[in-house]
Amino acid sequence: MLSYEKARETVTARVESLAAKPALESVSLLESLGRILASDILSDRDYPPFHRSIRDGYAVRAADVHEGATLNCIGELKAGDSPLFAVTSGTCIQIMTGAALPEGSDAVVMVEHTQRTGDQVIVRRPVRPGQHVVRRGSEQQAGEVAVAAGKRMEFVEIAAAAQVGAATASVYRKPRIAILSTGDEVVSLDSSPGPFQIRNSNSASLAAQVSRSGGQPVMLGNAKDQLDDLRAKIKQGLQADALILSGGVSMGKYDLVEPVLKELGAEFVFDAVAIRPGKPVVFAICQGKPVFGLPGNPVSTMVTFELFARPAIELLSGEAARELTSFEAILAEAVTEKPGLTHFLPAALSWPNLSPRVTALRWQGSGDIVAMYRANCLLIVPADRERIESGERVHVLPRSP
Ligand code: AMP
Ligand code: MG
Fold first, then answer.
1. pLDDT tens-digit profile of 281-298?
2. How far is the CA of 6 from the centre of ligand 1 (A)?
3. Region 154-166 average pLDDT
4. In this structure, how many other beta carbons lie within 10 angstroms of the beta carbon of residue 137?
């Protein structure tokens, strides 16, 4: 059976080969949050745009300044002022953080290291040339790429774009991702379930995960475990850029997702991965569209989305393929799992004394949303390990990247 690493690689390779780059749209800088930048944003000028003082103090010629030197203060500069006259030998200019260094000076003595009487400034600590000054263009030069195409716009990218005056950004259009749950027992959130019915939590969690991955969820509701209903709704889902189903992919008599996809001409890339939860996960290409059939148990749905569907949606949204982000931690209590499958266990990660420790949470298996809610990560138990002792190093995945 496929390992999750191999399955993930396969998804990435197949979706990359399918996907034309999405169309572009221009949005305001704040609306670009979470979107993938489609063209480079260039620096409009040097940064900093002038030799910038990064302390409150006195602009001086470093060569003049020994301990105990007395300088004549000939003026004052605050942030935003243009320096009108120069510092000459034996003089200094009072300068504030963020102001431009005046001609003739090459360093700033911190105000804390001076003593002032009238215009006389006594320097208590000498400075090196360049000290407390950031030179023009030393952060970034005019014309350099400030934010590169392909970056996801998060708050830092937005700051970098704002600095260079990008009021709008060209981003990729969000791919439309159809979400379809299946199951005769599944009812919508706003109806009150009968005694043996359950609410459709999968469509809700999938919509949130799709949005977080850069897609636009298209909610198709729930299909009954009947060929006709399922066929009609899958066909509708294939109008979107990708389709994600939950449920109906196990070995039960009413698990009809695979037969319907087959009937619609799907090529099955895989229909099982050596993981728990989520082993019967399906990835297919149907009528040119990526289709994921995620197992219906809610934790299986969430975990298999993160492992396999997320990279597909990221690619469709214009982002380059990313590696799965995992962290190392020390296992606090031994775990024992069935070998042959990689297990992803809801777990609690904490950092006592800055060293990461992880504990698997008690749970009732892949239907247990409550355990997932209490967890802040997934502990990975590799397929070749039956037991991991407390104190061993393990890998964990953050609940979402
Ligand atoms: P299935 O994969 O269809 O065999 O479903 C496995 C388990 O997940 C069953 O207990 C289902 O009732 C449950 N389940 C299926 N779909 C959903 C859903 N949309 N929301 C919450 N639970 C679900
Ligand atoms: Mg079902």
1. 999 999 999 999 999 999
2. 26
3. 98
4. 17
Q: Whose CA is nearest to atom 14 of ligand 1?
A: 296
Q: What is the pLDDT of residues 331-386, one digit of tens each?
A: 999 999 999 999 999 999 999 999 999 999 999 999 999 999 999 999 999 999 99
* Location of structure tokens 């489609």: 38
The finding on whether 94 has its CB within 6 A of some atom of ligand 1 is: no
Q: What is the pLDDT of residues 41-89, one digit of tens each?
A: 999 999 999 999 999 999 999 998 999 999 999 999 999 999 999 999 9
Distance CA 186, CA 51 (A): 65
Q: Identify the residue whose tokens are 């010629």.
A: 61
Environment of ion ligand 2 (residues, CB < 5 A): 183, 247-248, 296
The response to whether residue 183 sits with its C-beta less than 6 Å from ligand 1 reads yes
Residues 138-144, mean pLDDT to the nearest whole number: 98
- Nearest alpha-carbon partner for 9 in 243, 322, 219, 262: 322
Could you tell me which residues come within 8 angstroms of residue 117 by beta carbon, excluding any fewer than 6 positions away?
A: none
Is 138 touching ligand 1 by the criterion CB < 6 Å? no
Q: Which atom of ligand 1 is least distant from the CA of 201?
A: 20
For residue 273, the 8-state DSSP code is B
Q: What's residue 21's pLDDT?
A: 79
Which of 188, 251, 297 should be mutated for ligand 1, with most atoms under 8 A from CB?
A: 297
Identify which ligand lies nearest to the alpha carbon of 250: 1
Give the span between the Cα atoms of 311 and 278, in whole angstroms. Answer: 17
Other residues' Cβ atoms within 10 Å of the Cβ of residue 212? 15
Residue-wise pLDDT for 209-232, tens only, equals 999 999 999 999 999 999 999 999
Q: What's residue 401's pLDDT?
A: 65
Asked whether 181 lines ligand 1 (CB < 6 A), one says yes
Residue to probe by mutation, ligand 1, list 180, 198, 282, most atoms within 8 Å of CB: 198
H helices then E strands: how many in the chain? 8, 28
